[in-house]
Design goal:
Elements: H1 2-17, H2 25-37, H3 44-56, H4 60-69, H5 76-87, H6 93-104, H7 113-124, H8 127-139, H9 146-158, H10 162-171, H11 177-189, H12 193-202, H13 211-223, H14 227-239, H15 246-259, H16 262-274, H17 281-293, H18 297-306, H19 314-326, H20 330-342, H21 349-362, H22 365-379, H23 385-397, H24 401-410, H25 417-429, H26 433-446, H27 451-463, H28 467-479, E1 488-493, E2 496-501, H29 510-526, H30 543-550, H31 554-565, E3 572-576, H32 582-594, E4 599-602, E5 607-611, E6 614-615
Parallel strand pairs: 3-4
Antiparallel strand pairs: 1-2, 1-3, 4-5, 5-6
Helix pairs in contact: 3-4, 3-5, 5-6, 5-7, 6-7, 7-8, 7-9, 8-9, 9-10, 9-11, 10-11, 11-12, 11-13, 12-13, 13-14, 13-15, 14-15, 15-16, 15-17, 17-18, 17-19, 18-19, 19-20, 19-21, 20-21, 21-22, 21-23, 22-23, 23-24, 23-25, 24-25, 25-26, 25-27, 26-27, 27-28, 29-31
Keywords: Repeat
Protein name: DYW domain-containing protein
Pfam families: DYW_deaminase (PF14432), E_motif (PF20431), PPR (PF01535), PPR_1 (PF12854), PPR_2 (PF13041)
Length: 621
């Protein structure tokens, strides 16, 4: 009898091991049929393993069919298993529907049922369902269960109702660390960072903030765009002897990416290596994105090559392709896109946006059209407004303005301000005054509080010599209290980020910097430099006044500071919040040649690498 039992157990384990080899539903059905034929589906252990595999892979719908049709009176454990698995699936609403089936079947609940349901509500940002489940758990006597209450706090917080979350939190006599983390997460998600930080500082010492506590507040600052503060908290976390986990490292890397803080990003990468933290898909994406956005594609590619094949998810491939797109390396982006598909990884909508962006920034019109017009057929991805926006930008940059305008008119959704804005900029670049004026009026109507819309529309009028209309547009902007975002550039040196604003004199060394720029300017003029004033279409008194303004642009001051503070031959890296103008672009090419420096500049949308008088964008930006 013992031998028979052992043989049966061995056969069951062998059958279950076949599950992990199933990549298609037809293969899963074969294993399922074998388990039914062999009588294994009477074993609770076998049922649990089978359902767990389906829920953790891409077969959650099949798990539902088996659970609802093949099992007779499943117990509470199996109901909870299904609800838990479905709450984490790509269709979390199915777990709520299954809960209704559970209620109608009169299956008994336990305290573990509700945290799984509330996780689904959090994933769906479903407030009404959260309140209904709150009522259910109160009715069933679980209102004081710490796990259920913490899940409620988190769900209310995630759905944006942090007042409900705070009310529940304040009722807890001794909130545990999960309670603190949940309510802080709610305020951080709502952008209430002052309140979130106050609560974070209030966590009692005996609760001992963990990596989740620190990650919650750090990621909140990153999402709020307060990246300097995020990195300060990350360093504080290290000083408090709480080892960063993968999520906190990814958040800190995201802050580095936005700031262009390459050295700090490298330090975090080195820390992960020394701490022997394995590079999973999330951390690989964060590292590739950081290096790409800090202007170092060689390091980004190095990270990608070091990632194990099984970890190279579509997200990792997309991060690399996006990096090449930002850097205007369209050919390399297309090559990696082709290579990705050969490895069996299917592109998603974000991947295709990256590919179309790469085509747009490099002028690969036919390649972009090929991807766009076949994406639904070849990749089962229906074009979204982001994909249409990329195509309008691609056609506009290439001077195909009529075709771009026709595409906007044929879009199945209403064009947003981003799409009209890219077409307006194309009209300005290619001097299509008539179309540009029409689009400018549309944009001001759509986005009346955006200063850039007025400025570009006024510039279009000025380009056509209609100075009265240009002045009228600027008066309208002034009367409405709309302010143009000033040009701002940053340069990071020895762990410190220095910020320069156009025309601003607040930097402690501004007089020395201006003197350095005058020296640079003299050398430029000795080498034939003449200012490009075309982008500066203000109705100013004369070219001398325009020239004075163009020499106050923030990126010029940042580069002058970089020349002052770094050794000869060192690459200068500058980040700018707006599109680089023609004059600054011309200046950077000349500076790179005269001073024998590489200059890497990230403007609002892309990278420029200046070397020996040339730019990687090929003057196409």
């Amino acid at each position: 009898m013992s031998l028979t039992l052992t043989s049966s157990s061995l056969a069951l384990e062998q059958t279950l091991s076949c599950l992990h080899k199933c990549s298609k539903e037809v293969e899963l059905k074969q294993v399922h049929a074998h388990m039914l034929k062999s009588g294994f589906f009477h074993d609770p252990y076998a049922i649990t393993k089978f359902l767990s595999f389906c829920l953790s892979s891409t077969f959650s719908s099949y798990a539902q069919d088996v659970f609802l049709n093949d099992l007779d009176r499943p117990d509470t454990f199996l109901w909870n298993l299904m609800i838990k698995g479905l709450s984490s699936s790509d269709q979390p609403e199915t777990s709520l529907l299954l809960y209704h089936r559970m209620l109608s079947s009169s299956a008994p609940h336990n305290p573990y049922t509700f945290p799984f349901l509330l996780k689904a509500c959090s994933n769906l940002s479903a407030f009404q369902e959260t309140t209904q489940i709150h009522a259910h758990l109160t009715k069933l006597g679980y209102a004081n269960d710490v796990y259920s209450v913490n899940s409620l706090i988190n769900s209310y917080a995630v759905t944006g109702h942090f007042n409900h979350a705070r009310l529940l939190f304040d009722r807890i006599q001794e909130p545990d660390l999960v309670s603190w983390n949940s309510v802080i997460k709610g305020y951080a998600k709502a952008g209430e960072m002052d309140t979130a930080l106050t609560l974070f500082r209030t966590i009692p010492q005996e609760k001992k903030k963990n990596a989740i506590s620190w990650t919650t507040i750090i990621s909140g600052y990153v999402q709020a765009g307060m990246n300097k503060e995020a990195l300060q908290l990350f360093h504080e976390m290290q000083n408090s002897n709480v080892p960063p986990d993968k999520v906190s490292l990814a958040s800190a890397l995201s802050a580095c990416a936005q700031l262009g803080a390459l050295e700090q990003g490298r330090w975090i990468h080195s820390y992960a290596d020394k701490a022997r933290i394995s590079i999973d898909s999330v951390l690989a994406c964060a590292l590739i994105d950081m290096y790409a956005k800090c202007g170092d594609m060689e390091e980004a590619l190095g990270v990608f090559k070091d990632v194990k094949k099984k970890t190279k998810s579509v997200q990792v491939w997309t991060a690399l392709i996006s990096g090449y797109a930002y850097h205007g390396l369209g050919g390399e982006a297309i090559r990696r896109f082709t290579e990705m598909q050969k490895t069996g990884v299917k592109p998603n909508g974000i991947t295709l946006t990256a590919v179309l962006t790469a085509c747009s920034y490099t002028g690969l019109v036919e390649e972009g059209k090929s991807v766009f017009y076949t994406m639904e057929r070849d990749y089962n991805v229906k074009p979204t407004i982001e994909h249409y926006g990329c195509m309008v930008d691609l056609l506009g940059r290439a001077g195909l303005l009529d075709e771009a305008n026709r595409l906007v008119q044929k879009m199945p959704m209403k064009a947003n301000a981003v799409i009209w804005g890219s077409l307006l900029k194309a009209c300005q670049i290619h001097r299509n005054i008539e179309l540009g004026e029409r689009i400018g009026e549309i944009l001001i109507g759509m986005d009346p509080n955006h200063g850039g819309r007025y400025v570009h529309t006024a510039n279009i009028h000025a380009m056509g010599g209609k100075w009265d209309k240009a002045a009228e547009t600027r008066r309208l902007m002034k009367n409405k209290g709309v302010v143009k975002v000033p040009g701002c550039s940053t340069i990071s040196l020895e762990g410190t980020t220095h910020e320069f604003v156009a025309g601003d004199g607040s930097h402690a060394e501004i007089e020395i910097i201006r003197s350095k720029w005058r020296t640079v300017r003299r050398r430029l003029e000795e080498n034939g430099y003449v200012p490009e004033l075309e982008d500066l279409l203000l109705d100013l008194a004369d070219d001398e006044e325009r020239e004075a303004i163009v020499h106050q642009h923030s990126e010029k001051l940042a580069v002058a500071y970089g020349l002052m503070k770094t050794k000869p031959g060192t690459t200068i890296r500058v980040m700018k919040n707006l599109r680089v103008c023609k004059d600054c672009h011309k200046v950077m090419k000349l500076v790179s040649k005269i001073y024998k420096r590489d200059i890497v500049m990230r403007d609002r949308t892309r990278f420029h690498r200046f070397r020996d008088g040339k730019c990687t964008c090929g003057d196409y930006w």
